[in-house]
Amino acid sequence: MSGGASNTITVHIKYGELEQTFEGPVEEVWRAINKFFSDLIPVFSLARQATVTVDLAELIEELRGLVAISNGEVVILADRRKLPDRDIIMLGLLGAYIGHKLGALPKETLTSAQLRRMLEKNAKITSTRLSELNRQVWIEKTDRGEYRVTQLGIIRFREKRLPRIAAKAGRPGP
Questions:
Q1: What DSSP character marks residue 81?
Q2: pLDDT-based confidence at 52, cuts 50/70/90?
C-alpha cells in the first residue's frame, strides 16, 4: 500500500488468480476494495453480512452540525434544550468515538463528570441516565469507570433517535 503527497492512495490486491489495483482518494479506494471483496469473493460477502460494522464517514456526515471536536473536547452543537438527556449523552459518546477514530482524541471514553457537564444536570440525574443507557446496552462502563458507546448503541441510536434529532435541528435525517 502506498500513498502520494496528496490524499491519493494506491492499493494492489492479489488473491489467487484475481488481481486488482485501486487508486484515488482514500474514501473511494476503501469503498472500491469493499465492493471488490463483496462481488468477487463470496466468503467475504457472507462474513460482511454476519458482521456489524459502522461506516465512519457516514456516521460523521449524519452527526454534522450536531456534535464536533474542538481543542481536544467533544462539543454538543445541537440545541440541548430540545433534546432528552439520553440523546445528549449519546451525542457526547458518539463524538468521543469519532474523535478517537480520527485521532483527534486520545480515547473513545468520557467520564461521568464530562457527561454531567454536557448535560448541565446534577450527578444523580446523570447517573440515572447512564444506568438506563447501560441497561439498553447502548453504552458500557469501562474498567476505569468511564463510558463508551457500544456498536449496538451506535446502530440503535442511528435508527431510532438520530432521525428525530436531525428533524429538530432542521436537517434531513440519516
A1: G
A2: low
